[in-house]
């Protein structure tokens, strides 16, 4: 039985330009940490990610949702978690504050993720294994597929998962090799050209075969110059992604995107406003064959459905600490599978949770095992930080979802 | 000079089924009330609307934005309010909580609306007159047109307003006749069939020529039955709108919408999820010539742009206490004018603020003077409640935007 929920406001200032991009010059990586206790002494930890100011609002909203769990049996909640999730996301007064976006949805993510973490800890298995051991019906019971009826009815979701079961063995090798990682920390916006070049070399030395550069400078020539520095440093075989963090309007994105094509970017990420579905479609057509990656700021399955229906996204970067947690992450991943678009999560969780989810996506859902973003700046704060060796995430074996933080008692709340 | 900001959390429980709809069974009409004081003794009041729980989160976020105004000259802020608005809506840490949606954007609405109210009070004119007395350039300086460059560049916005100036006199008659109102309080979801019929008769007696019925019942036959009650009671000359408050998924909306066509609804409002741009397009095509109305839950100009570009909305119901206040309301109204779609605001403010804005939209922007929603349940709480006589809003003459509340000291904060 769930005995109590405690929500903590954990903030980790960064230094020296780490985390900077065109829009966010001075982020403070922060978590709303939902701690869900059962009467057996287990504690489930669920995160939502913010950039500092306002994290206290998400914490307050998470307490609202979390209190609805106290006194409940977790296994019963998880047996039909999709229903519980829909009830919470449609709490009739709170719903006005979204619906299904912003502070309230981030808060629901933290509480949802705490449920999954506690569920896995109670069963003494890592989350990826818990998810893989569920039957297709059990997985779909954890999902809220409302407002997706015309593209992903329940029966189809079950069928998609069922069809992937026979070929699982062919994909389980990833558990031994590890899941490939790409390096986001090479090219933060405020790093100098010299730092950038040195970081690219270090990334190669560390075994990464893909890395990211932040763009969106006031002077587009800066972006082009730095993109060429990266390409010249890493050579043609390494995948280079560029990320504008929404800085451009549509005409700018078209103009600059065409110039960036010269360095053969693997994708252009968040070129413009994350709500602008049709602008992304126009842009994707204009920049073809260069592909767009988006989703870091997309809050829910309905908007992802729209992006997928327009065919504008080459890669979907759904983040389980932005959408409504693990449940909606899996829903969006199923949608992507249906539309044939790879899922490459944004890792507000620094990859701790997503290292589990990409394993499920690949083995259980048949998604291609592409690579997972890696951001190292918070590793010292996690009890079990993700282990990256020679450019690969090591498969986590500890029970739960790897989201426990050290020194949690030092945070308010 | 702006000397301080105080934010109050004002909540007004309703009784007897008032305010109920298919999604919101028990709303508590609530305002985040931003009170902006200058050193001359003026107080500007700005509202954001919520349904109760979580209003305190919006209040907290409004304090964050409001403090940025303390010590500033309001006239200087308003001279380039579009820049100020963009800076606030892109506050780099807070922005993560949206961007431009949810709790933080509601909060920005409250603070923005307080600026406009104080501006009008300082000039001792009602807000509609202040807006009409601005030059086209001055109006556009109050707007943030970013992310709209491909459809509404600044020069075009100025030109649109300039072109409407010569014909203003032909539209100023509305100041004397008043602006037509429609009655939303006739057909709340939880009202019995008998109440519904009595309310429809009362609406006609009170001079209304248009009214709304809440639909979205679990059994669609209930919706059809009640829609026929309304049509049979009011006759064929009265406009009847039906409002599902997002209750239906797309297949349901198509099926029920086709049946509701039998009563010739003037529009079908919020048929499905407010983020689902493409579903609304599919639905609009399926139900044509019945038109859709939407926007009550649409948080920003970018999403409105998408709706307008798909051509799915017959009526846009932008709400100045949902989007980023008066400034973004005018931006969206200009977009609608560009795309030839009428603006019929949702009135989370109970029409207090919008009675000013529709006068500006009609006289200053050339929008058709259709009608404005009327909801009477909070009138006793306003210092200057909107006056509706024989189905028309009386033009407000008191300085400001008519948003001052009585007994504000009784609320916390």
TrEMBL record, chains A, B:
The keyword Chloroplast does not apply. One of its GO terms (biological process) is amino acid catabolic process. Its cofactor is Mg(2+). PROSITE patterns: MR_MLE_2 (PS00909). It holds the Pfam family MR_MLE_C. GO terms for molecular function: hydro-lyase activity; magnesium ion binding; racemase and epimerase activity. Residues 193-290 form the Mandelate racemase/muconate lactonizing enzyme C-terminal domain. This is L-fuconate dehydratase. It comes from Chitinophaga ginsengisegetis.
